[in-house]
Hints:
Number of helices: 6
Number of strands: 0
Signal peptide: 1-24
Distance between the termini: 38 Å
Keywords: Signal
Helix content: over 70%
Radius of gyration: 17 Å
Structural class: mainly alpha
Amino acid sequence: xxxxxxxxxxxxxxxxxxxxxxxxxDVFDASPALRFCAxxxxxxxxxxxxxxxxAKYFDLPSNYHFACARGVVRGFKTAVDRAACVSFxxxxxxxxxxxxxxxxGR
Length: 106
């Protein structure tokens, strides 16, 4: 975790200074910390601290979106896992219905 936070802090500090001088081929080349977080988001994090740090610094969705979707495709291990997934996405639907919609042109 200390390594991740140090990497995030260093990459953030360096990216502001290097962004003007050198262009990376894509965003993942420019930010190894973002690459780590995106891989964790899709494949799963080793611990909750890494997931929380990635969510804070890069505003990435929870890994549970992907874990739940895998359960839908491959099947759930238990009925409780399926119920948790249903509950999670019902909460997401409720949040989407009440979310702010930006007016066009802004």
